[in-house]
Amino acid sequence: MIKSLLVVYLLGLAFLSLNPWLRPSSELAIGSITWDKIDHGLAYGVLAIIIILTFRKPAPKFGLTASAVLISAAVGVTVEFLQSWLTLVREFSWFDAYANGIGAAIGALGFWSFRVLSRVIRQPRKKHLPV
């Protein structure tokens, strides 16, 4: 099930990234960060989370998280190159590639932070006996 989600997400990401009719708007901004960069970060953060969910074992390791971030960033750089090679109206952008990698790292960190926080909240509190 989750592997199918990964495939569908990758295909959707490729379609949206390589479609010449979809042009990202850089007019909306939060400070100096345009909505386009936030969009890139969110997309590749979600990709990193899906990769972690797809390949995690009962005892997750740091290596899986690092691999998910690296794979997501590599997919982002590859898609940037494909934009310049396969379309006439889209081009490679290092800023987009950086946003992809930073988003992947934030997504993976957010995922594990959420997991740790949910475990802490679910743990029963130890009752202190009166002395």
Describe the fold and architecture.
This protein has one domain (2-19, 34-117). A hairpin with a 2-residue loop joins strand 1 (29-30) and strand 2 (33-34). The protein is built from four helices and two strands. The chain is mainly α and 131 residues long.
Please outline the helices and strands:
Elements: H1 2-18, E1 29-30, E2 33-34, H2 35-55, H3 62-86, H4 94-122
Antiparallel strand pairs: 1-2
Helix pairs in contact: 1-2, 2-3, 2-4, 3-4
State the domain count: 1
Instruction: Give me the strand/helix succession.
Output: HEEHHH
The helix content is over 70%
Low-confidence stretches: none
User: In whole angstroms, how far apart are the ends?
Assistant: 53 Å
Q: What is the 3D form? A: elongated
Mean pLDDT: 85
Task: Name the features.
70% helix, two-stranded antiparallel sheet, mainly alpha, 4 helices, 131 residues
Q: How do you describe this structure in short?
A:
70% of the residues lie in helices and 3% in strands.
